[in-house]
Amino acid sequence: MTREQAAQRIEELRKLIRHYDYAYYVLDNPEISDAEYDQLFNELKQLEAQFPDLITPDSPTQRVGGQPLNAFEKVRHRVPMLSLDNAFSDEELAAFEQRILERTPDIPQPIEYSAEPKMDGLAINLRYENGVLVSASTRGDGEVGEDVTQNAMTVRAIPLRLMTDAPFEVVEVRGEVFMTKQAFEELNRRQLEKGEKAFANPRNAAAGSLRQLDPKVTAERKLSFYSYGWGEVSDGVVLETYTATLNRFREWGVPVNPLMEVVHGLNGMTAYFQRMTQLRPELDYDIDGVVFKVNLIEYQQRLGFTARAPRWAIARKFPPQEAWTKLLDIIVQVGRTGVLTPVAKLEPVRVGGVTVSSATLHNMDEIERKDIRIGDYVIVRRAGDVIPEIVGPVLSKRDPTRVSKFVMPKKCPVCGSDVIKEPDKSIYRCSGGLACPAQRQRTLEHFASRKAMDIRGMGPKVIAKLMEKGWVQHPDDFYHLTFEQLIQLEGFKEKSARKLLAAIEASKNTTLPRFLYALGIPEVGEVTAEALAEHFGDFDAIRNATPEQLMEVEGIGEIVAQNIQTFFQQPINKKVIDGLLAAGIHWPKPQKPAEHVDSPFAGRTVVLTGTLHSMTREEAKAKLQSLGAHVTNSVSRKTDYVIAGENPGSKYTKAQQLGVTILDENAFLEMLNGSTA
Prior knowledge:
- NAD(+) binds at residues 34-38, 83-84, 116, 139, 176, 293, 317.
- Residues 596-677 form the BRCT domain.
- By secondary structure, the protein is an alpha+beta fold.
- The protein has 6 domains: 3-63, Helix Hairpins; 86-317, DNA ligase/mRNA capping enzyme (D-amino Acid Aminotransferase, Chain A, domain 1), CATH 3.30.470.30; 321-405, CATH 2.40.50.140; 433-506, 5' to 3' exonuclease, C-terminal subdomain (DNA polymerase, domain 1, Orthogonal Bundle), CATH 1.10.150; 512-582, 5' to 3' exonuclease, C-terminal subdomain (DNA polymerase, domain 1); 594-674, 3-Layer(aba) Sandwich (Rossmann fold).
- Helices cover 36% and strands 20% of the residues.
- It is built from 24 helices and 24 strands.
- The chain has a 5-stranded mixed sheet with strand order 2-11-10-3-9.
- Strand 13 and strand 14 form a beta hairpin.
């Protein structure tokens, strides 16, 4: 077979496989047997193996590919992925409709709503450019999620290429990745056969599967997907109504829940909700309610959004699953920043398929508001969430002679330091700081965690043993541990001791944002640490900055600025930081402010993809930023350079399509070495 003949047959096979995938996953109407499908798929694999230059990222054979990741990259959503407001009764649903009528009195009545089951899975954003899947990201905090592109490509229900001959430039499809009950049962059976822990429920299993660092593991988990909306889209993608737009997605090969339909007015919403309540036990997937959305896009746009949710949509939740049990005690946990959190210790009870023996009580105000007392029988609720909550006491079963009110301790239960209540807040805090073992341990755990200094093998149990021995009290003590010490720890042998020492040594080579995050500065998370590093460029400039200078950084207000300055002024923190720097912790440092850099990367937009051998992606990003480059996560026409390492993936293909300059690692290093400041 000639190359031309192979190219023609490969394209025929891809179209056939996409068509049969569409029939199976979207229409739920298989057109060929599994054996016939496998025959076509194997023929395609053999042809691509014979002509590897004809392989494309959107080929069905590329669903399970790529090397395991070290970590997930962060992705900032072009359009925020907002939450939904909830309604727990028909009265709250009626109030939702009344708010719509008040804001848009001219809306045609009865109001037309789309109605669909609320899937209990993991929200995901799929970005298609010119019809090809180029990235996938989790919801995260709504603003920033995690790049799970490789894993999403393994989900057979997610099309790698939209089924249209006239694709739009950009279409972001949003929906829910979930696991059917059958797939969940099969997964747990395999887990138990391997002697591994079973998953608690399909939602946990789906979320854990999509966030596997090895996409081959995700591929084995049989995840499913339904679309329910969109993010950034080109003009013309969205039609007159929500349901028409989703049906267009369905025509493009994107699965949409077949139970979606149009209902009218409050009566239509309540009737649909009742039908789904009855149907719920028969479904092969978990749902925790129903979502109603104003169907006319014009009125969606006019209604707009609150800070966290659209005004034109609501989730009518099913009644939560509840149980009664006895509140045996209330204990206090001390967090990393010294905050005291009351925790209810319960007589174990099954709620929603999970055994619950403890539940957070949030704070003292919550306990007083609900009038919860030790010895009470309490109502424990799980409403689709993993974390249970105590709704309140069962007053009819209260025996006043056998219950007692909880009082927040005046002394820290761990270190004995004074407990201080913050003014105008419901927060009680231990004043011991790093003198408090609980705060020290959680500070050490945070410092060593994956998103901070990433000391592999330095988990909570190991840290507890090191603290018990008196060898580690503060983060800088990690870097003075010896082989002779580690070999004495229970469970440690020569190999594991040397492996941990190697991980400690490797952690010295980090980035400024990671180091800032690892320090555990109150209110400074990953995003704020990144913003500080990008704004100041130099650690000394950050720790010596005034609150006014700190407030110039995007996202930092007066309270956060004061927290940062206070942290760096504490003598113990100064000592620990100096100890860390003296131990050899370092990161790529900017040579000069970007405007003075003589570099081909100054002012350029750069995307990194694939594995680099001379440095990590984080190190490359830091070097580029120090030379004035703007490093982004996605390729567009505005991208100046794509730096491609080994196994570059879809970003490389996108760069080829757009004619963006692609640099291999050698070319990148040559340009890097030629930069001066």
